[in-house]
What we know:
Chain A is mainly α and 199 residues long. Helix content of chain A is 59%, strand content 4%. The relative contact order of chain A is 0.16. Residues 16-22, 178-182 and 187-199 of chain A have low confidence and may be disordered. Chain B is mainly α and 250 residues long.
Amino acid sequence: MATFKEYRERPAENPIAVIHANHVLPPGARPIQGQRAGFVSRAIAAGIDVTLIFITVMLTAAALWMLSFIIDPTTAASNEQNRVPDLFIMVAYGYFLNWAYWTICWALSGRTIGNLVMGVRVVSRKGERIGWGGAAVRSAFCAVFPFGLLWVIVSGANRSVQDVVLRTSVIYDWVVGLPTLARVLGRTAYEPERVEDGQ
Amino acid sequence: MSDEPRQEVVLITRPAVPGPPNPMDTLREVISTSLGMAAYTASTMASLVEQTVTYAVESSVNAALDRLVPAIADAIVERLDLTDIVLEQVDLNRIVNSALDTLDLTQLVIDRVDIDEIVAQADIDRVIDRVPIIPLANFVIEEIDLPQIIRESTGGVATDAVNAIRVQGVGADQLVSRIADRMLLRRRQRKVEVPGDPESLMGESTRAESPMEEELTREQPADESLMGRMRDDFTSGDRSARITDPTREL
Lengths: 199, 250
């Protein structure tokens, strides 16, 4: 326990350390952090994402169906099927939604909601976040060719086809704090000090 | 050499022969002896007299002084304001400072003063009354990070559930990898290291701590074509194992 004196005189703490100290990794999880994730984690993460997209599409369909009664309450019974969009349009909408969702998530934080639940993150060849272009291409590739994920099973390095082609990796990264906030704080508060140390 | 004259000193001893007695010499001897005797007698007498007189005078004078000096001193002190004189004439600061310099006051207090007794008799309530309780409470709350404790206790359940799912996922990942590797007759570890730091370990330097580790995790030159990369990826488990275990080649 700190005394008053220590409290008054202590230096400003590293915000990254403070944020990450609040999230303690369970024992045994530390060594695998940063390693490429295996098939099951990634498949579950993708499944969660796709499920969320599916729910969103269904909710959209339901909303459109209800909206149609406000716009046109007296349609003949024979025309009832026109109250929801065609299946093709719904599937295309779902694909687009999925593509946009993965692109935005991977470009901003490297994690979708499924990734966050399973504690994995998409990184570039250098271990950094992939940019908007890379995220868009990878997202499209994953949406169009989901079976590429199966390559993780036989890959010698836990890589999907998308990973091999685009040179990305999906790593275990369990932090559940606020990574973006930590990054922002780290940049504003601690970059100058690091520069001074380096000189 | 033998022709040159030489100087020689020859010592000759002769028996002493007393000369004829000189009346003047005899007289001089008698007079000088008498004078010496007289001087010695006089000095001895003087010293005797001096000692006697000194003793007699000293004892009487001392007796007189013993009586007189206290009376005089009393009279003087009565007529003087000593305090004023000391205050005006003496540099008290210097005296006190030099005295304090030679004393270890703290040790003196520790040795001589019963501090427990003082504390026991002190009015602690009056001291506590002056302590700012609200800032103190705020300090304590801030120091133990009470909001964080509340957040953790409420969010702990969710975190535990998520961690449990993740642990299960990792276990399943490793199981699937092992089965696949066995079916592919691949006996080496998969190459799962990636450059860069995971956010979960941010702020800790865990990667590439030794030159050997750096060597092991370094990207190897590879076939850059797509098919080459696919092939390379398929066999990279073997390759990394070869790198990590050089003794296998021997």
